[in-house]
Design brief:
Blueprint: E1 11-15, H1 18-21, H2 67-81, E2 85-89, H3 92-95, H4 106-121, E3 125-131, H5 137-143, H6 150-165, E4 172-176, H7 188-195, H8 205-230, E5 235-241, E6 245-247, H9 252-274, H10 279-287, H11 296-304, E7 309-313, E8 318-320, E9 337-338, E10 344-345, E11 351-352, H12 354-368, E12 372-376, H13 394-412, E13 418-421, E14 444-446, E15 458-460, H14 462-472
Parallel strand pairs: 1-2, 1-13, 2-3, 3-4, 4-5, 5-7, 6-8, 7-12, 12-13
Antiparallel strand pairs: 8-9, 10-11, 14-15
The chain binds 6-O-phosphono-beta-D-galactopyranose.
6-O-phosphono-beta-D-galactopyranose binds next to loops.
Length: 478
């Protein structure tokens, strides 16, 4: 075993997103976000995006785990685990309730002043995502989200307001969470949460996706430019959902297919890191006859607003087969996915692949030559509370340990420049995909069920003590 292998100053922490834990959806003048109009899913029934808030429906994000009211208690628990950083997002609708106002909402800004001050009290560095699936609903309804060029200005105003206000409290930023999720452009959830596009089955979702995603990368680049002007010490990153595509076999056609799927997922961060579109995607857009509005001025902005680091989530890999499609015709990568016989899966059928994380750290390093930050990783599982109140979660420890062993190899044996590690859902929260509480990721259990019942009491799981030891030994003792 390699001892004391993580660099000094490594940012150990945990990650959450505002809409999945804050609750208090109308407190302090907060507006309605896209997450606030999403119902809970149930046993295989996906979440529904209702047009506005409909009486009688269950909207789990409205109350979530009331981090808004419990943040001091929760940050004290993070500090007890030894967190060096805490990744959260700023709810856009607390700052600009409708998204298109000229002036920000002071009560919303004040909440994050207090939250970041509480973090600093314990020496915990905030790591902030600006847009994590919580666009103001008003922007979706009135402007068609990022389907409209005007939304660039609304986002940049929001970003600039946050950069100015938290100039001295926050150093690490990300513009959009998992911007590459839109590669799944036939998925209502991915499109609504990422770019505020509501799918209309009569139109070409793929063409719309390329347009909206283009406006998003421009918005991101403008925000980066502004941010660096406001504080040159800011570190502003992209954030992608890194799900590498593996070939189903060593058949060259499968290898080529896997490459193609990766190209279609990577282009978002390629643009954010390189400041220009990769050849394959640019050619594909033309070949399909899509005519996105991409101006020469946009291309200059993309070059000027490149990111400082690559943040990414890693949960799983995917495996694709050329037998299921033609490499020159595939549009939706989900059509060619096959099962990987070498991997086990989580209770939600997500393949568990620790080696894929080492592969990814090398893959991203080779592609981008930038520092990396693992800003999400973790296992969604159902936890049992014992009669004595204890929560034994060896499956979670096992998942995280195996992933961290691979991370350590990437850092010590492969030379990857890794800034930190923030496992997802460090405290139980509302699942983004299912809208349920029962898919838990936390080191800290929260007493709340899928129907919204529970005391909201917080308890330490076994994994809490395990992670505390990992941080204390700087990853030497996994
Ligand atoms: C990522 C999102 C998070 C989060 C996580 C787990 O895609 O950035 O918001 O929720 O996945 O997904 P889920 O909650 O669906 O299990």
């Amino acid at each position: 075993m390699v001892e004391n292998s993580f660099p000094a100053g490594f940012l150990w922490g945990g990650a959450v997103a505002a809409h999945q834990l804050e609750g208090a959806w109308q407190a302090g003048g907060k507006g309605v976000s896209v997450a606030d109009v999403m119902t809970a899913g149930e046993n295989g029934v996906p979440r529904e995006i209702t047009k506005g808030v409909v009486a009688g429906k269950n909207y789990p994000n409205h109350d979530a785990i009331d981090f808004y009211g419990h943040y001091k208690e929760d940050i004290a628990l993070f500090a007890e685990m030894g967190f060096k950083c805490f990744r959260t997002s700023i709810a856009w609708t607390r700052i600009f309730p409708n998204g298109d106002e000229a002036e920000p909402n002071e009560a919303g800004l004040k909440f994050y002043d207090d939250l970041f001050a509480e973090c600093h009290k314990y020496g915990i560095e905030p790591v902030v995502t600006l847009a994590h699936f919580e666009m103001p609903w008003h922007l979706v309804e009135k402007y068609h989200g990022f389907g409209n060029r005007k939304t660039i200005d609304f986002f940049v105003r929001f970003a600039t307001t946050c950069f100015k206000r938290y100039r001295n409290q926050v150093k690490y930023w990300m513009t959009f969470n998992e911007i590459d999720n839109q590669a799944a452009f036939n998925n209502d959830f991915s499109m609504a949460t990422n770019s505020g596009l509501l799918l209309d089955n009569d139109s070409d979702n793929e063409a719309e996706m390329y347009q909206a995603a283009h406006y998003e990368v421009v918005a991101s680049a403008l925000a980066v430019k502004e941010g660096k002007r406001i504080n040159p010490d800011f570190m502003i990153g992209t954030m992608i959902n890194y799900t590498p595509a593996y070939p189903a076999s060593s058949a060259p056609a499968d290898v080529l297919m896997a490459q193609r799927v990766n190209q279609r997922r990577f282009w978002f961060s390629d643009v954010q890191v390189w400041g220009e579109y990769p050849r394959e995607v640019e050619t594909y857009i033309q070949r399909r006859g899509f005519r996105p509005d991409i101006t020469e001025e946009d291309r200059i902005v993309l070059k000027e607003g490149t990111v400082d680091y690559v943040g990414f989530s890693y949960y799983q890999s995917m495996t694709v087969s050329a037998k299921k499609g033609d490499v020159d015709q595939i549009t939706d990568p989900m059509d060619i996915v096959v099962e990987n016989p070498y991997l086990e899966s989580s209770d939600w059928d997500w393949p568990i692949d620790p080696i894929g994380l080492r592969y990814g750290l090398n893959d991203l390093t080779d592609r981008y030559h930038l520092p990396l930050f693992i800003v999400e990783n973790g296992l969604g599982a159902v936890d049992q509370v014992e009669a004595n109140g204890e929560i034994h979660d060896p499956y979670r420890i096992d998942y995280l340990r195996k992933h961290l062993e691979e991370v350590r190899k990437a850092v010590t044996l492969d030379g990857v420049d890794l800034m930190g590690y923030t496992p997802w859902g460090c405290i139980d929260l509302v699942s983004a995909g299912t809208g349920q509480m029962s898919k838990r990721y936390g080191f800290i259990y929260v007493d709340k069920d899928d129907d919204g019942n529970g005391s909201l009491a917080r308890s330490r799981k076994d994994s809490f003590y395990w992670y505390q030891k990992v941080i204390k030994t700087n990853g030497a003792d996994l």
